[in-house]
Amino acid sequence: MMTNKNKTVAIVVTYNRKELLYKCLRALFNQSAACDIVLVDNASTDGTQDYLREQGLFDDKPPIHYLRLEENIGGAGGFHEGLKFVMSRSWQWYWLMDDDAEPEQDALMNLLKNADEIRTIYGSTALGKGKEERRLCWPPYVIGRNKNEFIENYELLQEFEDVSAIPFLGFFIHAEMVRQIGLPDSDLFIYSDDQEYCERAKNFGAKIVLVKKSIIKHPLPKSGVTYRLMNIRIVYRSLPPWRIYYYVRNKILVGRQYYGFRLWSQTMPGILFRAFIALFRENHRLKILCAYALAIKDGFSNIKGKRFLPL
C-alpha cells in the first residue's frame, strides 16, 4: 500500500475537454490545502494526455495519478473506477468532480476544517461563472427550514445546509463511508449516478451537507423553462435523444429502488410532462418520443448499462 503525504485526494473524470481539464487541474494545484489528484480519462480521443504533458502538468508536485480507461464508460463508470483505485491506497477523504470544475483557492480548506463527521457527505457549492456568478448551478433541495425548498441564489444559503442530494461536483466523502455503501453504480453511465449514491448513503444513515464557503466555479447548465405541476417543480431543458434516454431511464431506475410512492406521484408525472412539452418545443419529435418510450420500457424492465440507441 502506498503512503500519501496528503490525506485528501481529488478524483477528476474527463472526456475530450482538455482545455477545461487544464483549468481544473491548475485550480487543484493552487489549493491552500494540498491534495493529491487522480485523473480518470474516459478514453479521450482529443489528445488529452499529450496536451497535459506538453503543459507540464505531469511534472508538478504532488503528481497526477493518471488512469486511462479502455473505453468511455460515462461519468458513473469513471467515478466508479476512480474510487476503486483510491480505496486501495491510504487517502482518507475523496473529493469528486468533473473536468469543467474550477475550485476556488480555499474550497478544499473550507471543507476540511468543517468535515468532522465521517458519516456525513459534504458538498462544495457550485456557482456559475461571469454575470451569473451568484447563481447555483444545481439548486439544492434544502431540508429543515420552514418548508423544504430549492435554493437558487448563493446569498440565500446558510453556512451549512442539510440537503437531499449533491452532484459529483465537489462531492466530499470519507473512505469509511465508501467502504460501507460501496462504489457508484457504473451501469447508470450518465445521469442520476450521484442521486443514486446519495440515496444509498442515506439508507446507511448518512447526512448530506452543503458547505457554503467551499466554492467551485462551473458553467451553468443550459437555461431551461420552469413549470409547476401539482406542486412539482419541473425544469425543462432541450436534450438530444440519446441523453434523454439515460436521463429518463435512470430516473426511473433510481425511483423504483428508493422513492416508493414518489415514483408515481412525482417522478413519472415529471417525465410524462416533459415528453408532452417536447411535442411542442422540439423539432425532432419522433426521435425524442422514441427515446422517452425506450427509456420508460428499459427503466421498468431494469435494463442498465451503456445502450446502443438507434435514435
Structure summary:
The chain is α/β, with parallel strands linked by helices and 311 residues long.
Describe this structure in words.
With 311 residues, this protein is of the alpha/beta class. It is 36% helix and 21% strand. It is built from 9 helices and 13 strands. The strands form 3 sheets. Strands 1, 2, 3, 4, 5, 6, 9, 10 and 11 form a 9-stranded mixed β-sheet that branches. A hairpin with a 6-residue loop joins β7 (141-142) and β8. The longest helix has 20 residues, at 262-281. The model has no long low-confidence stretch (mean pLDDT 91).
Give short descriptive properties of this protein:
single chain, alpha/beta, Spore Coat Polysaccharide Biosynthesis Protein SpsA, Chain A, two-stranded antiparallel ribbon, 9 helices, 36% helix
Taking Cα atoms only, what radius of gyration do you get, to the nearest Å?
Answer: 19 Å
- The unreliable regions are none
Order of helices and strands: EHEHEHEEHEEEEEHHEEEHHH
Report on the biggest sheet: 9 strands, mixed
End-to-end separation:
46 Å
Question: pLDDT average, as an integer?
Answer: 91
What is the domain total for the residues? Answer: 2
Ordered list of secondary-structure elements with their pairings:
Elements: E1 8-14, H1 18-29, E2 36-41, H2 48-54, E3 64-68, H3 74-87, E4 93-98, E5 102-103, H4 107-112, E6 120-127, E7 141-142, E8 149-150, E9 160-162, E10 171-174, H5 175-181, H6 193-203, E11 207-217, E12 225-229, E13 232-236, H7 241-258, H8 262-281, H9 285-300
Parallel strand pairs: 1-2, 1-4, 2-3, 6-11
Antiparallel strand pairs: 4-10, 5-11, 6-10, 7-8, 9-11, 12-13
Helix pairs in contact: 7-8, 7-9, 8-9
